[in-house]
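Ticket closed. Logging final result for Glutathione peroxidase.
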Amino acid sequence: MSVFSYELETIKGEQVKMNQYKGKVLIVVNTASKCGFTPQYTDLQKLYEQYKDQGLEILGFPSNQFGEQEPGANSDVQSFCQINYGVTFPLFAKTDVRDETAHPLFAHLTEQAPFAGFNTDEPSGKMLNSFLSEKLPHYLEGNSIKWNFTKFLIDREGNVVKRFESTDEPLAMKSDIEKLL
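Final structure:
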């Protein structure tokens, strides 16, 4: 099964099939408006603007599963992203991305790109690992999404190429994106 097998709901409530993105390089990212990583929207938008004409699509999936950091309605999320970060890439309806309620797309992504740990040489990686170890140790088990702004890079054929954790800055993905474009 590829990522193109799934059907999703946009932030405006429309049903779309992922196969409409065949032939594009994708970044699938779970997002939240009230997270310490929320400023990553800025660099995700920069990547989108830089590479969209070459075939990059960024698909944002707001989720309220991590510290209830996405509490608003879909319309609130959309307004927040546009007003504060100028987001023009596609956003989807609030989505569960981990545990038994995870959307099948995210179960597929985490199966294809297992969790390899945080880079604890970086302050944010050390901080998030420490926080989860202390407060939510079960989050570190298995391959599930660990926190907001986990990013999956997918090639034009729908293969998951690489997983970037919350603590990985979006611009650090540039060379990997360019190899696929």
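The helical segments are 40-51, 74-85, 104-112, 123-135, 174-180. No further action required.
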